[in-house]
Amino acid sequence: MSGCEARDAKKLVRSPSGLRMVPAHRSARSPFGLDEPPWVPDKECPRCMQCDAKFDFITRKHHCRRCGKCFCDKCCSKKVPLPRMCFVDPVRQCAECALISQKETEFYDKQLKVLMNGATFFVTLGTSEKSELMVCRLSNNQRYLVLDGDSHYEIEIIQISTVQILTEGFTPGGGNTRAIGMILQYKVPGSEELTQMKFTAAEDFSCNKKLSASWLAAMHKVSKGGKTNRKL
C-alpha cells in the first residue's frame, strides 16, 4: 500500500442533511469535496427564498442540502446525488443547486473514474532526456496523482499549478485532433520552485492509445474546472 492510500478509511456520519460516508481522517479529504453549508435558521426565513410563499402549517419549509437556504416544497422538491459532500443517498436540493449537482454527476461518474483506472505513459522529469514507462492514476482518495514504474511518485493534486495537453492532427481546415500527452507543473512540498513532468502516450501495441487519450481528456477537464472551485 502506498503512503497516499494508508489513510483511506471512511466512517458513516449522520447530519440534519442525511447520511454521509466521509474519510475517517480530515487530511484524507478529496480536494474536489465540499463542506456541508450552515442552514439558514428557521426564524430567519418566514417565506420561501425563491417564490416568497409564506410558510404555515400547510406550506412547510425545506432546506437545500447544497446551499442551506430555505424553500417551500415546490421550489425544493428534487432529490439529486451530491457526491461532493459524500452523501450516501440523493438529497433534497433547490432547482438551481440541483442543476449544478446534475452537471457534476458526469464529472464524478466518468472523469474521476477514468483517472482512477489509470493509463500508461512515458514520463520525463524536468529537463532530463530519459523517459520512463509508468502507470499513472488518481489515488482512491482523489488527493494524489500516483505514478508507478521503476520509480514511484505521488503528486498532491492541490500542488499542481498547470496542465497543458499536447495534441496532434490539427489541420488548417479544422481537422480533428487527438491528445498524445501533457506537460504538468507542480510544487514539491517545502519548495516554491515548480517541477515539470512530460507525459507521452506510448506507441507500442501493449498500450491502449484510446485509453490514454481518454485519461488525458479527463485530466484536462479536472484542471479546467479547478481543484477548489465550488462549481466544477
TrEMBL record:
GO molecular function: zinc ion binding
This protein's UniProt keywords: Metal-binding, Zinc, Zinc-finger
Keyword Cell membrane on entry: no
Highest rank taxon of the organism: Eukaryota
UniProt-listed SMART domains: FYVE
Pfam families: FYVE (PF01363), ZFYVE21_C (PF16696)
Domain FYVE-type: 42-97
UniProt-listed SUPFAM superfamilies: FYVE/PHD zinc finger
PANTHER family to which the protein is assigned, alphabetical: ARRESTIN DOMAIN-CONTAINING PROTEIN D, ZINC FINGER FYVE DOMAIN-CONTAINING PROTEIN 21
Name of the protein: ZFY21 protein
